[in-house]
Amino acid sequence: MPAVPGVAMLTHRCLDPQDPYAEREVHVAFEWAADHPRLIAALDEQEADILPDLVEAQRDDLCREIMSARLTRRPVHPARRTGRSA
Which SS3 state, helix, strand or coil, does residue 78 take? Predict the structure, then answer.
């Protein structure tokens, strides 16, 4: 994914909102704006940016998926990673 100058870009793999069978994924580039992701690009399997083709509901789906991933991630405790007790 090409870099955008001046933007701290993060990425996440999401289900392709254009795939009715939910079998494909898109690589979504985004940045945090206040408390929600601001979508920058959504690259499909051919690395074409499909974001301009998405309707608002599909963009909202991508944002919800990113937010859900953020909320379900649990930090790795250093003691668990090394096997030592805390």
Answer: helix
